[in-house]
Amino acid sequence: MIYLDNAATGGFKPASVQNAVLAAMKLCANPGRSGHSLSVACAERVQECRNLLSELFDGYGYERVVYTKNCTEALNIAFFGTLNRGDHVVATCLEHNSVLRPLEALKQAGVIDYSVAPLRNGSLRAEDVLSLVRENTAVVAVTTASNVTGDTPDLNEIRRGLPDRVLLFADGAQGAGHLPLSMRKTGIDVLALAGHKGLHAIQGAGALLFSDRVNPRPLLHGGTGSESFNLNMPDFYPDRLESGTLSYPAICSLFEGALLVRSQRDTGAEILLGLTSALRRELDALPQYRAYFSPNPCGIAAFAHATLPSEEVSGILSERFSIAVRGGLHCAPLAHKALGTFPDGLVRASFSPFQGMREVNALVCALKKI
């Protein structure tokens, strides 16, 4: 199979990631729960990964790196743990449901209100986000990259235009591993990571990074291995937000994946920019298809057939040509409404930096036959 669904989950895991997971499965203990040497060794690797993530994303120290099972959990901790009654949030129509659904749940509970910035000529503009800020706006939430179009909003410009009191939350599910995200330089207060995509880790590896301006309340309550005498959650991070046993194999995979990103991110971004550029040129030459993406370093390429529904095209590609793509709404309904592709959605091909023109040519050949 030719796997072009990397925006959902990275289909190829580097050898270093595979070896790290296998080693963790062969011999591992509960990190931070016991005093014996194996538990201590596992805890040291967990700590090394915190240090690396804070360094890679210019974070606010290892104690403000919290492990989660995915980006959705990280965003839920951030929203439910930070927002208070009467707060207002600005989001954008490019956001994934991992942002929109927590905000809608808080709105329906009568806790917050939120506004959604639209697209203008197919793009998200900083001034349209900033125009929605109110006196009671507590958070502006913006994706680092759209999982539909690959569009990368200008977080620097948005941050510069925000009042200092407003927090900037960034969904890094698609951008992390591909874009040079710097929390301190940009002024990002919350960065949510999905390790199983551009960071090359396995599923179940996620993280929440947050600034010293953010002090989330715990979403879960339970054992931490620290202050076991206390029936309340510890008041220090990361323990305050990490209840229960961590997924040590997932963290080991995230560590190795992040090491690879640190050394090869720019090269990978160039590869993905080249692949999406090549596919865009080919699609523009096929009158029965319409592209809804520009060349981008995240490898995302969404398009529509003139008459066939997106999920039918995706099914044909899988069944007849053994090419894996994704059809439908991609858990981003407002993006499709803004693009005029709701409710049918789009076909999305998403590339990996470990791929090349072979995959582009195979997809184009199949699309011509369809």
Keywords, please?
Aspartate Aminotransferase, domain 1; 370 residues; 12 strands; alpha/beta; seven-stranded mixed sheet; globular; Aspartate Aminotransferase, domain 2; 38% helix; three-stranded antiparallel sheet
What features would you describe in this structure?
There is one protein chain. 38% of the residues lie in helices and 15% in strands. It contains eleven helices and twelve strands. It is globular. The longest helix is centred in the C-terminal third of the chain and has 37 residues, at 248-284. Helix 1 runs antiparallel to helix 8 (248-284), helix 3 packs parallel to helix 4 and helix 8 (248-284) crosses helix 11 (357-369). The chain folds into two domains: 2-9 and 264-369, Aspartate Aminotransferase, domain 1, CATH 3.90.1150.10; 15-260, Aspartate Aminotransferase, domain 2 (3-Layer(aba) Sandwich). It is of the alpha/beta class and 370 residues long.
How are the SSEs placed, and which strands pair?
Layout: E1 2-3, H1 15-26, H2 37-56, E2 65-68, H3 71-82, E3 87-92, H4 97-108, E4 112-117, H5 126-130, E5 137-143, H6 155-161, E6 167-171, H7 183-186, E7 190-194, E8 206-210, H8 248-284, E9 289-291, E10 300-305, H9 310-321, E11 323-324, H10 333-339, E12 347-350, H11 357-369
Parallel strand pairs: 1-11, 3-4, 3-5, 5-6, 6-7
Antiparallel strand pairs: 2-8, 7-8, 9-10, 10-12
